[in-house]
Amino acid sequence: MVVEHLHIISLNVPFPANYGGVIDIYYRAKALAEAGVKVHLHCFVYNRAPHHLLEDFCFSVNYYNRNTSILSAFSSIPYIVKSRESNALLQNLLKDDYPILFEGLHTTLLLNRPELRNRVKIVRAHNCEHEYYRQLFNNERNWLKKIYFYTESKRLRSYEKVLHNAQLIASISKSENRYFNDKYGKSVWLPPAHSNNNVTSLTGIGKYVLFHADLSLLSNELAAKFVVESLRETAVNVVIAGRLPSKNLQELVEATKNVRLIVNPDAEAMDEIVANAHIIVLPTFHKSGVKLKLIDSLYKGRHCIANNMMLDGTDLDDLVMKFETEEELRLLCHKLQNVAFTENDVDKRRVALNYYDNNANAKKLLNAIENIDVRI
User: 117: buried, middle or exposed (CB in 10 Å: 19+, 13-18, 0-12)?
Assistant: First the structure.
């Protein structure tokens, strides 16, 4: 079976591609289109407007309202799934017999529908979702949100068995690929798609130590505070950059002499911030998927240092230096502060990051779909 047409069901409108999940969806859809596939994109709308630029590379684009009312929460089906219920989507899928790519467990409400029993169905697993929500529960301080995250985690664990109805699971990391293969036996590792075509890291010495992230997420705020607390008594200059930092984080930075905060930089400004850094610090205390800021940092930045949780399942350990504690982070920053980034370092990244090439991974996905036994 040659894949000429492909339905892609997106959990959100994937443009602008400015946060993890939609970055992966947008650049994969674009790479598939560039490989000659006629992409039929289906988007759920709730906090982003439809965007005409998606029509530049998609054969067709359809939009469906997500039901974010409280009624979607009163179900045994997870809220992130139930709120994306759409009969209009089902009717559009039934107009042909093209394969269907469900982007995230969020979009899989139709996966076990009898009308789609004989269709080729692929699920892109962005995370092990019940584990992701359990970690959100562990980190959250607001008790109402804690209740929601706990309940959603329980529902997602039970709901996940819907994946038995897919012929293929495309897992974002090697560790999650092992998990899904152990449970369902039909997973392939498909690294995340991203905005980078070439390694553009500058050589020489940069200007500061950088932590960059979407600071509106509690897990990223906790990581930013870890960096500030670790380096506040050192001689290194530190930059924290990202969108929507909390007042608490802003006050912490203002009280720390060697740290400055860059709030809400646009994509171009963020690229410049990353390029001018000497060391990029990449801690996470929230294990899930692959962090695209790690990929961006390796394509665009100089020295990268990360903890094991950030590197889990990525096969990128050889490109970074590792730390786990505040003291180890301080020692690494001191060790690297006068070490130039070299052409050899750049060449090493070019070789290792071949696994993360968008075009190669689009072809890998197409090959996997074409090898599916349609009689299943």
Answer: exposed
Instruction: Decide if 285 contacts 222 (C-beta within 8 A).
Output: yes
**How does residue 375 score in pLDDT terms, banded at 50, 70 and 90?**
low
Reference 173, options 210, 120, 131; nearest CA is 131
Give the predicted TM-score (pTM) of the model: 0.93
Q: What is the 3-state secondary structure (H, E, C) of 84-112?
A: CCCHHHHHHHCCCCCCEEEECHHHHHHCC
pLDDT (tens digit per residue) in 331-370: 999 999 999 999 999 999 999 999 999 999 999 999 999 9
What is residue 376's predicted lDDT score, i.e. its pLDDT?
44
Give yes or no for a contact between 155 and 77, defined as CB atoms under 8 angstroms apart.
Answer: yes
> What pLDDT was estimated at residue 327?
97
Residue 176: name the closest of 50, 325, 287, 93 by CA: 287
Phi-psi region of 25 (alpha: psi -120 to 50; beta: other; left: phi over 0): alpha
Are 253 and 226 a contacting pair, CB within 8 Å?
Answer: no
How many CB atoms lie under 10 A from the CB of residue 51?
15
Query: Rounded to an integer, what distance in angstroms lies between the CA atom of residue 246 and that of residue 228?
Result: 14
Residue 313: both structure tokens together:
């399942």
Question: What average pLDDT score do residues 196-222 get?
Answer: 95
